[in-house]
Amino acid sequence: MQIIRDVRKFVVIPGAGTLLTMLFLYGIGTGILAPMNAVYLDESIGLSKVQIVAVFAVSLFCNMAITITVGWISDRLKNKKRLPVLAAFLCMIGLFIYMNATDFRSALIGMTITVAPSGLIMGQLFGMARNHFSRTAGDIVEMAQLWLRASYSVGFFAGLLLGANIFLIATFKGVLWGNLAGYVCLVVLLLLFKETTEEPGVKHVVKGEPFSLIMLIALLMLSCADAIRGLYLQLVVLKLFGKPEIMSYIWSAQAVFELLFMTLGGYWAARYGSKKIIFVGGCFALATYLIYTGSSALPVFFAVQPLYSFFVSILYGVAMGYVQRMFLSRTGFGASLYVFISQTASLIGYFLPLFIEGITPDIFFIPSALVALSLLMIGIVLYREKARGSMIKALEG
Hints:
This protein is mainly alpha-helical. The protein folds into two domains: 13-196, MFS general substrate transporter like domains (Growth Hormone, Chain: A); 208-397, MFS general substrate transporter like domains (Growth Hormone, Chain: A). Helix content is 81%, strand content 0%. It starts with a helix and ends with a helix. The model has no long low-confidence stretch (mean pLDDT 80).
């Protein structure tokens, strides 16, 4: 089978294991803190709702600005590894400030220094990984990227469960130290990793994608829908069922499916085209959101998780590779642009549900509408491509 051959080829690539472990441990470190940030700002520092939103919004906006700016110039650098190493050190400095914050000003400074440089890490890691695999195993570049992204996702969801247990044992300080440990592991493994910068011995032709602003906007809408779900589903679940730990179990179930679906999605995208697979994933997301709005039964929330896991696998796996292939000669910028799209979606997702009063399943009508509009845009692109292909065949005939 092709998948077995590809896995065997992947595991013997020099540096593949280091990259895989790097993203797994970084995912754990990120996942440990992710669901605790708002609670920490509220309970430990005593910030108001408006102040908490301001801390998140300012830090994310700075993150976006740094990500796209450095992504634009990073391809001129022969050695990309220095950027995520520097970013990780800055994040650690910010965490020390954040740990000792006592008011709004110190919390804002600490979180901004922690979050702002982190946008360099994911974008540059995947830009560096694409360069590495294209020079060592060009025929499995896309699958290698997907497996790396799946490794981060599995680590992130493992971090969610680990963070909850650390909090019970060592409170917020323990959670923050766990996040710091993730950055330390990242730096150590980056220093051990030998970045490939020379030209490949055998060049593999990788088919690029034409630039499409419509597709980028459609992906932004899909990411925005996912950001709304990520922020507000936990609140809806708490409101409906009264047990905050349920959301951790629902999120953890996602990790079970993600590695499988990312792998399948990658092969299907190679066979049928990325845009078609993204369209199918969007259909699964729309079905999930509509089920959220119409049901309050807990088993249903678990039952639809495989559908949503497929969508997330496509959004963070296939779509990432699709955007990168729009900029084959500028891998650092392509990866950073994808991260920038995700960040922009999160920023928008913080505010859109404020137009619906209270915390109710009706919130999910907003991501449903976003996904429906995105599917319409992708459908138009696919229809035009099909019509153009038919016209070319007719002219050739």
